[in-house]
Amino acid sequence: MRTIFFSLYLTKSKIRADLLTLFFLNPDRSYYLRELVRRFGYSVGSLARELKAFSKEGLFERAERGKEVFYRLHHRHPLFTEIRGIVEKTVGIPKRLSDGLQSLKEIQEAYLYGSFVKGKMKVDSDIDLILVGDETQRLKSLLKQLEAKFDRSISSVLFSPEEFQSKKDVKGDFLYAVIRSPLIQIKPLKEKEWI
């Protein structure tokens, strides 16, 4: 029961969810307070309070460099692996992308693929995304916002519904190979389904 309450504590606040998603997506990177204020748009006080709480719990390490205070994940925290799992399942990339894409009626289907889905993401890896539908300014704006929140570039490939249907079964085609690799369908939302 304690785990349920702990996971609710971690992910109930939008600020905590944003911080945890960013830090666990970039586990070897350090961030300073003003940088996080610019990235997320939250007040200095709100972010400082959450960073202080995570540091007090031992999840974040705090280091002063000149006038700046930097924060990074403490990899040796006893619950590091469990917290990472909670973050990935509740507020991580698939959830954030799904939440954003659900409002875009121009996009009928969306799939995550590549290093993230395979669990092989590196410091310089991007987020690979296949989209089925029509490109709009709203889509471009959403992807740009998510890139800033994730501190990762999003490499998206957009197919019209007709093109997707015709290319997915053509041997040797890029789409043929991707469809047969591990995927996470994020639109329409299919919780925890791997294709």
Mind sketching the topology for me?
Layout: H1 2-12, H2 14-25, E1 31-32, H3 33-40, H4 44-56, E2 60-65, E3 68-73, H5 80-90, H6 93-102, E4 107-113, H7 115-118, E5 127-133, H8 137-150, E6 154-159, H9 161-167, H10 174-179, E7 184-187
Parallel strand pairs: 5-6
Antiparallel strand pairs: 1-3, 2-3, 4-5, 4-7
Helix pairs in contact: 6-8
Please tell me about this protein's structure:
- With 195 residues, the chain is of the alpha+beta class.
- The chain folds into two domains: 2-88, Arc Repressor Mutant, subunit A (Orthogonal Bundle), CATH 1.10.10.10; 92-187, Beta Polymerase, domain 2 (2-Layer Sandwich), CATH 3.30.460.
- 49% of the residues lie in helices and 19% in strands.
- The chain has a four-stranded mixed beta sheet.
- Strand 2 (60-65) and strand 3 (68-73) form a beta hairpin.
- The protein is elongated, with a radius of gyration of 18 Å.
- The model is unreliable at 1-5 and 191-195 (pLDDT under 50).
